[in-house]
């Protein structure tokens, strides 16, 4: 008859074998999921290399971002990268249509800041935003864009983006109203922070906001909207998709996910976490055909979710992924940015 010591050793040995087997199975399952369902598109390579350096202290090639943009090549088919060193750049930067495939490579959120303190329509939209883009293929990383203009005089835009196939990764946008204008084309915003109070994101573009944090400050009226979407006809491929995002609002604010600016306005929120109570369209949507407005939700969580509202099927949600909604697999790999 084996001793208690022998039994203990044998038991420990057998348990160790079982644990090892379970560990192998778990690792295989995790690896399989990572390579299939949950696999992110990783950086495909250093396709964006620094070409010039912008530094306020004169240690680079330029002391202003605008001067660097003016000196960049026009109609480029390759990315032209700007390293923008730490500092607050007090200028309204404009990317003309001929300046294609420019890339801002900042030093970090809150470290590299492009700053404006103007409002629209007091100034033109191009002269208001910290950054205005007309040149297609623009990319920005690790940069903050801020506008501290007087909200009583109009929109305080941090970004006006009128270009196609543009991408932002690990950036920050701050303003009060109309903070990010996604004007046209296909646009992508990943792992970024957006701060505003009224019509935080607006425009007619087809834009995906992925893994972004949207912070809705308390507006003067106490009522604000995350997205002012302006799709006016079914033939336009426009709409805003928030995928894997978080939405939070200041205490005492009533937050609506959308404010329709067109008869076919489209806003979709998928796999996101709503920290604050949210509602659907602003009440003024009653003046638009309700059957043509589209506000969809898929597998969202958090205390701000309205149970049973706007639920999409998996097949419906699949239409609004990066690959499907903005054809991201065809152009985002060229940006060297990570997306899902």
In short:
By secondary structure, the protein is an alpha/beta fold.
Description:
- This is Pectinesterase catalytic domain-containing protein.
- Pathway: Glycan metabolism; pectin degradation; 2-dehydro-3-deoxy-D-gluconate from pectin: step 1/5.
- The chain is of the alpha/beta class and 340 residues long.
- It has helices spanning 4-35, 65-71, 314-317, 322-325, 328-331; strands at residues 50-54, 80-84, 87-90, 93-95, 102-105, 112-116, 131-133, 139-141, 144-147, 159-161, 166-169, 172-174, 180-182, 186-190, 193-196, 201-203, 206-210, 213-216, 223-229, 239-243, 246-249, 254-260, 266-270, 273-274, 278-281, 294-298.
- The protein has a ten-stranded parallel β-sheet with strand order 1-2-5-8-11-14-17-20-23-26, with helices on one face.
- Strand 1 (50-54), helix 2 (65-71) and strand 2 form a beta-alpha-beta unit.
- The chain is globular.
- 45% of the residues are buried.
What tags apply to this protein structure?
8-stranded parallel β-sheet; alpha/beta; globular; 340 residues; 15% helix; 26 strands; single chain
Strand order in the sheet with the most strands: 1-2-5-8-11-14-17-20-23-26
User: Overall 3D geometry?
Assistant: globular
Care to count the β-strands? Answer: 26
What is the overall number of helices?
Answer: 5
Q: What share of residues are in beta strands?
A: 25-35%
Query: Which structural class matches the secondary elements?
Result: alpha/beta
> What does the largest sheet look like?
10 strands, parallel
N/C terminus separation: 60 Å
**C-alpha Rg (nearest Å):** 23 Å
Low-confidence stretches: 1-7, 15-45
What is the helix content? Answer: 10-25%
Average pLDDT confidence is: 85
């Amino acid at each position: 008859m084996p001793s208690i010591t022998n039994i203990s050793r044998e038991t420990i040995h057998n348990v160790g074998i079982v644990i090892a087997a379970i560990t192998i199975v778990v690792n295989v399952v995790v690896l399989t999921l990572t390579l299939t369902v949950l696999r992110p598109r990783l950086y495909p390579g250093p396709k964006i290399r620094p070409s010039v350096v912008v530094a306020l202290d004169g240690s680079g090639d330029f002391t202003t971002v605008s001067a660097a943009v003016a000196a960049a090549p026009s109609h480029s088919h390759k990315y032209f990268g700007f390293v923008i060193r730490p500092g607050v750049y007090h200028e309204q930067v404009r990317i003309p249509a001929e300046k294609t495939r420019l890339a801002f490579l900042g030093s970090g959120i809150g470290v590299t800041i492009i700053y404006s303190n103007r409002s629209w329509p007091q100034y033109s939209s191009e002269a208001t935003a910290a950054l205005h883009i007309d040149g297609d293929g623009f990319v920005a990383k690790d940069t903050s864009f801020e506008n501290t203009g007087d909200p009583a005089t109009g929109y305080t835009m941090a970004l006006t983006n009128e270009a196609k196939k543009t991408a932002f990764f690990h950036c920050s946008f701050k303003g009060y109203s109309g903070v990010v204008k996604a004007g046209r084309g296909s646009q992508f915003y990943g792992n970024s922070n957006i701060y505003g109070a009224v019509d935080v994101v607006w425009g007619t573009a087809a834009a995906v906001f992925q893994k972004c944090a949207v912070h809705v400050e308390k507006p003067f009226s106490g009522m604000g909207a995350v997205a002012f979407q302006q799709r006016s006809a079914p033939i336009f491929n426009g709409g805003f998709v928030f995928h894997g995002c978080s939405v939070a609002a200041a205490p005492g604010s009533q937050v609506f996910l959308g404010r329709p600016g067109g008869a076919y306005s489209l806003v979709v929120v998928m796999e996101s976490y709503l920290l604050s109570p949210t509602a659907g369209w602003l009440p003024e949507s009653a003046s638009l055909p309700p059957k043509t407005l589209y506000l969809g939700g898929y597998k969202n969580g958090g205390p701000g979710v309205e149970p049973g509202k706007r639920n999409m099927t998996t097949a419906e949600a699949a239409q609004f992924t990066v690959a499907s909604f903005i054809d991201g697999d065809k152009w985002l790999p060229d940006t060297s940015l990570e997306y899902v």
